[in-house]
Amino acid sequence: MSVGVVIVAAGSGSRLGASVPKAFVLVGGRPLLEYAVRAALSARPAAVVVAAPASHVDEALDLVEPLSREHGIPVQVVPGGAERGDSVLAGVRWLPEACDVVLVHDAARAFTPSEVFERVAAAVTEAVPAVVPVLPVVDTVKVVDAEGFVVSTPDRAALRIVQTPQGFRRDVLLAAHAAHGSLATDDAGLVELLGLRVGTVPGDPAAYKITSPADLAHAERLVDHRG
Ligand code: C5P
User: Which parts of the sequence are marked as the site Transition state stabilizer (predicted)?
Assistant: First the structure.
């Protein structure tokens, strides 16, 4: 099994209100993308590819080249697309053919421990071609209608919060994107639509998605704490 990692970093991050794309926002003086790439490299994949905003490809290359040298693992940067799915495909197309397992990771989950990458990759098999890291749901969740009235209360014990990296057999990931495009909010959702099995492994609270200014403040505290 040869693992390739696609880090999608081409979003604008408008909800963060920053003047640069989210992956280039500084935390502890370093861009979020650097933390994400370092975590992926620590899991020792065969290759890493970053889908960056077209405007920031050169900046991303300057960032990843020293990390690639430091770890002795190829790291490439490609321009991402208009939708997240386009960015995923742009990345997968660059990965060496030999990478039969692909991990797709959001740069916005910059503080994901490398163990999560390892757990996900190890759980992808012929029979379980897609694997997602999950956390239990601690709050009660309601389904509401368009007016905000409660429709139902799903059984919390059966619910999970889903993170990235999500792991796939490469052929299955490509087939899922070809068949269903952007019909789901995550890549595993596309595999579900193919009717294939999606497995779960434990995620990590540190793999939270940096979306709001409060999430960014939390990230600063995390980095401070790590020293
Ligand atoms: O927009 P959202 O928060 O769902 O984005 C999740 C991840 O997908 C982010 O890391 C973002 O950079 C990436 N993305 C991308 N290309 C897009 C849109 C989002 O790489 N066109």
Answer: 15, 22
Residue 140 included in any domain: no
> What is the pTM (predicted TM-score) of this model?
0.96
What's the number of domains the chain is made of?
1
What kind and span of H or E run contains 217? helix 213-226
Q: What pLDDT score does 98 carry?
A: 96
Look at residue 23 and tell me if it is in a domain.
Answer: yes
Which atom of ligand 1 is least distant from the CA of 21? 12
CATH of the domain at 41: 3.90.550.10
Residue 37, CA atoms < 13 Å, CB-side half-sphere: 31
Lowest average pLDDT, out of 10-24, 132-146, 147-161, goes to 10-24
Stretch 46-59: mean pLDDT: 97
Confidence grade of residue 226 (pLDDT, cut at 50, 70, 90) = confident
Residue identifier of the C-alpha nearest atom 11 of ligand 1: 11
Nearest residue by C-alpha to atom 21 in ligand 1? 83
Residue 152 lies in a domain: no
Digit-coded pLDDT (tens) for 116-139: 999 999 999 999 999 999 999 999
Q: Is the peptide bond before 165 cis (omega within 30 degrees of 0)?
A: yes
In a domain, 138, yes or no: no
The DSSP annotation for 35-69 comes to HHHHHHHHT--SEEEEEE-GGGHHHHHHHHHHHHH
What number does the ligand 1 atom closest to the CA of 209 have? 3
Is residue 32 within 6 Å of ligand 1 at its C-beta?
no
The alpha carbon of 97 and the centre of ligand 1 are apart by a number of angstroms equal to: 24
